[in-house]
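User: Can you write out an input/output pair for a complex, sequences first and structure second?

Assistant: Here is one pair. Inputs:
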Amino acid sequence: GAGVSQSPSNKVTEKGKDVELRCDPISGHTALYWYRQSLGQGLEFLIYFQGNSAPDKSGLPSDRFSAERTGGSVSTLTIQRTQQEDSAVYLCASSFTSGGTGELFFGEGSRLTVL
Amino acid sequence: EDQVTQSPEALRLQEGESSSLNCSYTVSGLRGLFWYRQDPGKGPEFLFTLYSAGEEKEKERLKATLTKKESFLHITAPKPEDSATYLCAVLDYGGSQGNLIFGKGTKLSVKP
């Protein structure tokens, strides 16, 4: 497909477990972003990768959250020791260049539910 | 601190009834203001980028305008398929190019 692909689409886990969320960006897009969307809240920035530059991790809410991007393409967001407040939809986006144009292409998200 | 406030939170229109959505923002230096559309269960879909006060962009029944403190998304003669949540976001020159600040959105419902 031509769009941003995320997996899993839904994940239910128990408090304290680790989860991994995957994002396949659009081919050729150099920038990749992770946001999360909680019920009734706006999208919250988590992390931004641009080319080979060091990622901007300033939005990660705690050290339980980490992300990597391998080979400038696929990205994995890892949440360790999940808490109930981590329940949200995690959205990945990519863009052809940096975020300055605002034209981000979003995936459909991974809905995480922590019991 | 950068802030984006959208109003109203929800808007119900009859088909053909034109209206406007508002996005007020506070940034130290505006790099860009962006409008997205989000359908239930989907990721946001990019609509427009506005860079400077006075700028306007149009797409079908939608027109976005920008002033130094706010942006409007005008919807002319809406159709039921325009029903969605409309999100506004800003990018600050002083921040990361990946950190778009989003508002909470306006949920638009258009009844036939």
